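thought: fold this chain, then report.
action: predict
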Amino acid sequence: MPVRRYFSCLWLLLCYSQYSKSDSLEQYVLPSGAPPAGNWMFSLPVVLGVDKTSGCICRANALTTVVVCFGGYDCRRFPKVKTRSEILRVRTSIIDMIEIGQLDYLYYLKTLELEANHRLKYIEPGSFRNLTHLEELSISYSTGLHNIYPRTFEGLLNLKNLTMVNNGFSGILHVVPALRPLMLPSLESLDLSENIFEMLPRDAFRPMQGTRLKRLRLNLCQIEYIHPNAFLPLRNLKALSIGENELNTTLIEDFLIKMIEQGINLTFFDLSGMGFRRHLPKKLLEVVAQSTITKLLLSRNQFEIILDNSFPYMKNIELLDLSKVSAVSIGAKAFDTDKFPNLKVLYLNGNILPGIHNVNVAAQLKLLDLSCNTLNSVTPTYYEIDRDSFINSSDMKILNLSFNRIKSVSKYTFIGLDNLLILNLENGTIFHIGPGTFKSTPHLEVLNLANNPLTESENFTISKFEGLYELKYLTLRNCGIKFLDSQDNIFENMPKLEHLILRNNQLYYITAEVLQPLTKLRILDVRENFLIAWPTPLFNNGVHPQVLLFSNNKISHFSMSMLEDFNHIFRVHKNSTDIDLRGNIYVCDCNAMYSTYTWIEANASYELKQYFKNSEFLCTSPDLWEDKRVFDYLLSIKSLPCIMYDKISKLMIFIQTTPAIIMIMLLALIAYFVIKFRVYIRYWLFLGKLALGRKFIRSSLKAHTKIDFREYKYDAFVSYCNEDRDFVLEMIAEMESNPPFLKLCVYERDFEIGSFISESILNSINESRYIILVISNGFAKSQWCRWETQLAEYHRLFLEDGTSYDPLVLVRIGHIEPKYLSTTLKFLLKTKIYLSWEEQRQDEFWKKLRNVLTKR
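observation:
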């Protein structure tokens, strides 16, 4: 469903750290237009079949803009793809070479990815000669590819991005001669990470003299030495990543000084994971300070204490990444404007900082990431934010405090954040939100409160969410919400809300009054709650979201209000509507679905009818229709049984009404006499109880002196579903082949051919000393097994005589989904001790079961 792209918008905004290391801050501010597309573009529902010339299997996305071919040991040659697309991926094949002419027909491609083809050893020069429109090329994870020959990339005149990660290159000069500007005149980005280069000599990039290359990645290449002049041919280089190599600071200083002297103006420098320990490399930082670098990455090194003077004056730095550096303490003035006058983005996530204490956050920051600073679980402490910590942070746009043990926020916590747009408080321990907490953030557009125990102190009141008049995205996933009060409606303060996530809470219903203020709402996500079919329409008074996500709730049928809502939304948004109703407990019988069928036939719009026709939600009962499409059942309603059921049901209503009225009158008359003569009735009941009590005492004294010598045909009757047949066969072998050689009754072997199943079950239960219920997920779903469980429970209650004898034995296999458990099964599993099957402790299990069956 293409509209699902809206659902990924929030996560793209909150996962900004993945992209920020190379791009500007502007992309993290909320877009004014439609949100960017998510991973829905790259799902591959269209099967193109097996390519006969190569043996590869090919699939495409719904828009056929992406084609992926793969095939393991069957994919031996480059596939001949007939479907025209912009992106082609060939993966996990056993192609050993690519020859001239094999790719000529792909002249229209813009992106080509050849990845994880481990037998690829040779690419014939000129193979790409006809791909003049290609802009991105990836040849990665091909460990058998040791060389790229000088004329390999001939013809790629418009190639901008080239990725060759984790191949078999053992030296930089095995690759660079093929990257000459004559072959790749438009090349701007080159990624050679995860190749074993060990060293970059003086002439490492000399063949690329005159290139337009701007971005170079050499991470994880085991580089131990770089000549000071190695990068000088790359005159246009702006971004250099050499993280996770084995270089000392002197080598880095030398080549960086040379680049500065030669006017190579780097703006991005990645030194993450370089093994720097204890102290920041001050001399190296001084060299960086003299350069034009604006984005500096020092993550995954180790700087426990960052002092006020740890950094020199760095006027050009705009982005500084100090994530996962094991920092436990940071000086109050370490990032002041005196040191970093232009610093806009600061990453301090993944450290061990206890909070923000006795310090005002740097005034120049626009993005601050302090997420994941919780100490280890052995000695957990709360993450605390002092009052007025952000008093000078009026320029800040994004604040990430997620995955910290923040216990509460108040109206003093965010004072100063007047222009904040995104606030992430996900996965904290927030159980208290003070009144007026968000009044200090009047321009907030994204608020993420997911996975916090908010309802423990009844936080959902309008006063605690006051001030969010500009809010567009609100996430309240997994916050324990049981209801939303329409009288004290938190959404009254959110007139611009577009995206509301209430997933994985405990909601049984939502009312139209609660949603009434949300006239701008586009996406409503209430998946994984306990919602049932709503009796009155939800979406009226101008509320008509475009995306409704209702999957994995407890909806068993479609009420008229639901159908009216869906019909209204489809009329407003036409084919751009996305409604997800999968994973509910639909009952496919005439009683539940006949009215749905007649309403759709008479009133549904064309779009709603097409939606049901293409829907994927399934029936859960009865057994005949289990795991079949609801739409298929609706089609079957055209047959006679449901139509006759409707007519008979109307007649039955009339027939049943008259006796019911008579019965009500009779009960009312009896109630009148009971109330009038209640004193006499109590006296008679007292006398009867006294007489029965004396008789019971005498009979019980006699009964306890007797011993039950009744002979049974079987030691135990086994109730199970067909899915557990192998387990029952193993049980028979264990119980009947080993002392004391018990006799079990199973229907496949011991029921008489031609007899009625119900009669055979009753007889077998009465002829067995014990009843074993093999309870599994399949057992809980089976109607026959539920009936046998009911019989067994009646049998047990009937035999109760005050002794410890209990004929019911429960054996549980695997996980059982709660939605399939009947009332009787839930009661038995909660009140009786049962045996659980474990593969690792089989002998102990069989011993316990044998002891239970032989104890009487």
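thought: worth noting. The CA atoms of residues 824 and 830 lie 10 Å apart.
final: tokens above.
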